[in-house]
Amino acid sequence: MSKKTLVIGASLKLERYSNIVINKLTNYNHDVIAFGLREGQVAGIDIDTHLIPYKDIDTVTLYLNPERQKEYYEYIIGLHPKRVIFNPGTENPEFQNILKQEGIYFEESCTLVLLSTNQY
Q: Following DSSP, what letter does each residue of the chain receive, concatenated?
């Protein structure tokens, strides 16, 4: 089942995990949206550089350190995702508490591992 996923912190650099996960998500036939600092494409997916009020987001997967996440708190909450994944290095107790108060499920996990083990 396809899960519409927003990758925040998308990178054009091939060695970045956000780049790798966009490729893997598309390989698994998930609907992917990418947001990053630089325009471009990864696996045929355009990287948006402006915040767009997307609809029907299942999962937001984060590739930003906790300090950089702060400016996106309201935006992410406003998307009403079913879950937010904090990939390694993005763990953020402050934001996790806010998500909990908003009733949004979150997990500290690795999107690549979840995909590879059919737990996504």
A: ----EEEET--S-TTSHHHHHHHHHHHTT--EEEE-SS-EEETTEEEE-S----SS--EEEE-S-HHHHGGGHHHHHHH--SEEEE-TT---HHHHHHHHHHT-EEEE--HHHHHHTT--
